[in-house]
């Protein structure tokens, strides 16, 4: 064991989901090591503990895993359970942490950000419940990282991570497990595989775009092998360190190949895609895109059709910027609906306390209490189960849903890589104007309320302030603005737009939202502050 002297980096502050930086930043001497030591510090040390370790396989994943193993050994960990080749999807890692009753896990991923030597890398810690570390712990990591003077590491050769089974590293057990097996077994307990298999046998067709990221092997095993979908149903199914140059973000912009196929003349019945680390999902019907907020609402209304959820839902939770579509379902079901800040870590307490069964975010994240992360493939399988049970198309299900609940027209506009000080000035100006907004008329709509969202966790009472500026109009329409906490370059403004309609369900969302979009630009003066008038990505 060696103790290495080091100097603190001043930028190791975890964001919405762990620490994300350019890969080359992580490749600097001591950068990864400092943060790993800070993680161990923040959780009261690694001594005698068991951890899960794996990542989405992006560039530097293989090197980082070896470093973390040597550091875990040097810090006295008892055992590390690693996915074969150092690879685990985020939901599979969450599942392993729970199944094996470990003390937590380290996940290497920058999720939906591109991968490669010149792209992004990330690391985060999940707690013993399988969920992302809460703010108190991520703040402790930052504090530890800011004052670090040394870290512990073992001098040893690389561990063979391709062979399943157990080996020893300086007295610590290293257990290499099949990355897919436990996860696939869990899915079989939740969904009616026989019914879905029968649907495929009867001619149902599907395309799953794994975007050259981590879900390829999971989707191939489950959808093609276990559920009997035709070979070739899963495309881009081999994970690559640079995701084959794809941007593994499952939205209509980046999953454009899938979108083109689903909107084309030979579209299959159902399409889906997932992100770099497998926790996000996009679902598309033949000729119809399902917005993530609508997907959450449809899943909540129909989850009882799948065997894992026949008891019904205890409650639902959504992030604040996610549309209120799921709230209407909750009201109808007579269950609690929670509104949390952006980021999956805020769902953990509600899931642990049994108050929420289903959770979701507008950013293509949906999940349930089966793990403590959002879970892309899980959402796709629940959709398949619902399609098999209802024997209707995606379009029919969506239309029936809107008929019953009304439609929350919804869109998110992202303005990427804005100069950070300009983005901050814009948000500051808007914040300062909030008290004067109620009563004001913009684009023919009257503002009913305006605030900066603050969340008090109903389970532990912790408060998270300044989680996004909201402007609510008298007709129920809404604008939300916040700056991204996952980017690695400048600032990204996320502008969330919502408008409820009781009739007229087949409008183009951009057109239905046009007055709200204009109001947002007017209120925040996005163009004046940033020079941008058009978003880079629309979801
Ligand atoms: C984004 C999304 C948020 C999501 C987070 C992590 O955060 O908006 O909903 O939880 O990414 O997802 P931000 O701060 O950039 O808006 V993942 O799949 O990147 O772990
Ligand atoms: Co992700």
Automatic annotation (TrEMBL):
<keyword id="KW-0413">Isomerase</keyword>
<keyword id="KW-0479">Metal-binding</keyword>
<dbReference type="Pfam" id="PF02878">
    <property type="entry name" value="PGM_PMM_I"/>
</dbReference>
<keyword id="KW-0460">Magnesium</keyword>
<dbReference type="InterPro" id="IPR036900">
    <property type="entry name" value="A-D-PHexomutase_C_sf"/>
</dbReference>
<dbReference type="GO" id="GO:0005975">
    <property type="term" value="P:carbohydrate metabolic process"/>
</dbReference>
<feature type="domain" description="Alpha-D-phosphohexomutase alpha/beta/alpha">
    <location>
        <begin position="12"/>
        <end position="145"/>
    </location>
</feature>
<dbReference type="GO" id="GO:0005829">
    <property type="term" value="C:cytosol"/>
</dbReference>
<dbReference type="InterPro" id="IPR005846">
    <property type="entry name" value="A-D-PHexomutase_a/b/a-III"/>
</dbReference>
<dbReference type="InterPro" id="IPR005844">
    <property type="entry name" value="A-D-PHexomutase_a/b/a-I"/>
</dbReference>
<dbReference type="InterPro" id="IPR005841">
    <property type="entry name" value="Alpha-D-phosphohexomutase_SF"/>
</dbReference>
<dbReference type="InterPro" id="IPR016055">
    <property type="entry name" value="A-D-PHexomutase_a/b/a-I/II/III"/>
</dbReference>
<feature type="domain" description="Alpha-D-phosphohexomutase alpha/beta/alpha">
    <location>
        <begin position="293"/>
        <end position="405"/>
    </location>
</feature>
<protein>
    <recommendedName>
        <fullName>phosphoglucomutase (alpha-D-glucose-1,6-bisphosphate-dependent)</fullName>
        <ecNumber>5.4.2.2</ecNumber>
    </recommendedName>
</protein>
<dbReference type="Pfam" id="PF24947">
    <property type="entry name" value="PGM1_C_vert_fung"/>
</dbReference>
<dbReference type="GO" id="GO:0000287">
    <property type="term" value="F:magnesium ion binding"/>
</dbReference>
<dbReference type="Pfam" id="PF02880">
    <property type="entry name" value="PGM_PMM_III"/>
</dbReference>
<dbReference type="InterPro" id="IPR016066">
    <property type="entry name" value="A-D-PHexomutase_CS"/>
</dbReference>
<keyword id="KW-0597">Phosphoprotein</keyword>
<dbReference type="InterPro" id="IPR045244">
    <property type="entry name" value="PGM"/>
</dbReference>
<dbReference type="Pfam" id="PF02879">
    <property type="entry name" value="PGM_PMM_II"/>
</dbReference>
<dbReference type="InterPro" id="IPR005845">
    <property type="entry name" value="A-D-PHexomutase_a/b/a-II"/>
</dbReference>
<comment type="similarity">
    <text>Belongs to the phosphohexose mutase family.</text>
</comment>
<feature type="domain" description="Alpha-D-phosphohexomutase alpha/beta/alpha">
    <location>
        <begin position="182"/>
        <end position="284"/>
    </location>
</feature>
<dbReference type="GO" id="GO:0004614">
    <property type="term" value="F:phosphoglucomutase activity"/>
</dbReference>
């Amino acid at each position: 064991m060696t103790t290495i002297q080091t100097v603190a980096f001043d930028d190791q502050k975890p964001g919405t989901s762990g620490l994300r930086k350019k890969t080359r930043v992580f490749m600097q001497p001591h950068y990864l090591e400092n943060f790993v030591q800070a993680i161990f510090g923040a959780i009261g040390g690694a001594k005698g503990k068991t951890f899960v370790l794996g990542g989405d396989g992006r560039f530097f994943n293989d090197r980082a895993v070896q470093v973390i193993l040597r550091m875990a050994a040097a810090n006295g960990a008892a055992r590390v359970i690693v996915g074969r080749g150092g690879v685990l999807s985020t939901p599979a890692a969450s599942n392993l942490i729970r199944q094996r009753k470990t003390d937590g896990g380290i996940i290497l991923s920058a999720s939906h950000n591109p991968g490669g030597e010149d792209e992004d890398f990330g690391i985060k810690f999940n707690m013993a419940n399988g969920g992302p570390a809460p703010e108190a712990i991520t703040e402790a990591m930052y504090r530890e990282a800011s004052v670090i003077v040394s870290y512990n590491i073992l001098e040893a050769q690389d561990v063979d991570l391709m062979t399943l089974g157990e080996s020893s590293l300086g007295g610590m057990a290293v257990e290499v497990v099949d990355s897919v097996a436990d996860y696939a077994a869990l899915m079989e307990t939740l969904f009616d595989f026989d019914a879905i298999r029968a649907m495929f046998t009867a001619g149902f067709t599907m395309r799953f775009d794994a975007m050259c990221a981590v879900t390829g092997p999971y989707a191939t095993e489950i959808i093609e092998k276990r559920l009997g979908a035709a070979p070739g149903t899963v495309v881009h199914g081999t994970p690559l360190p640079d995701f084959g140059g794809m941007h593994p973000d499952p939205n209509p912009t980046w999953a454009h190949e899938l979108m083109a196929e689903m909107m084309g003349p030979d579209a299959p019945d159902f399409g889906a895609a997932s992100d770099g680390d497998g926790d996000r999902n996009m679902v598309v019907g033949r000729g119809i895109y399902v917005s993530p907020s609508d997907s959450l609402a449809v899943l909540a209304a129909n989850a009882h059709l799948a065997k894992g959820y026949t008891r019904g839902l205890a409650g639902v939770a959504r992030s604040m910027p996610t549309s209120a579509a799921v709230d209407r379902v909750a009201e109808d079901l007579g269950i609690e609906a929670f509104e949390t800040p952006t980021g999956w870590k805020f769902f953990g307490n509600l899931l642990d306390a049994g108050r929420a069964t289903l959770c979701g975010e507008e950013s293509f994240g949906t999940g349930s209490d089966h793990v403590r992360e959002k879970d892309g493939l899980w959402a796709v399988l629940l959709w398949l189960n619902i399609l098999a049970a209802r024997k209707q198309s995606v379009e029919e299900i969506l239309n029936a849903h809107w008929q019953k609940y009304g439609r929350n027209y919804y869109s998110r506009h992202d303005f990427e890589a804005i100069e950070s000080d300009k983005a901050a000035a814009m948000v500051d100006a808007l914040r300062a104007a909030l008290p004067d907004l109620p009563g004001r008329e913009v684009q023919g709509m009257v503002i009913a309320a305006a605030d900066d969202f603050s969340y008090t966790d109903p389970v532990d009472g912790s408060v998270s302030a300044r989680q996004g500026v909201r402007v609510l109009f008298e007709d129920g329409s809404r604008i939300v603005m916040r700056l991204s906490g996952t980017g690695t370059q400048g600032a990204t403004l996320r502008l969330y737009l919502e408008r409820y309609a009781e009739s007229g369900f087949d409008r183009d969302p951009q057109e239905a939202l046009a007055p709200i979009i204009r109001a947002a630009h007017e209120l925040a003066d996005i163009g004046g502050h940033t020079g941008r008038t058009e978003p880079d990505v629309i979801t």
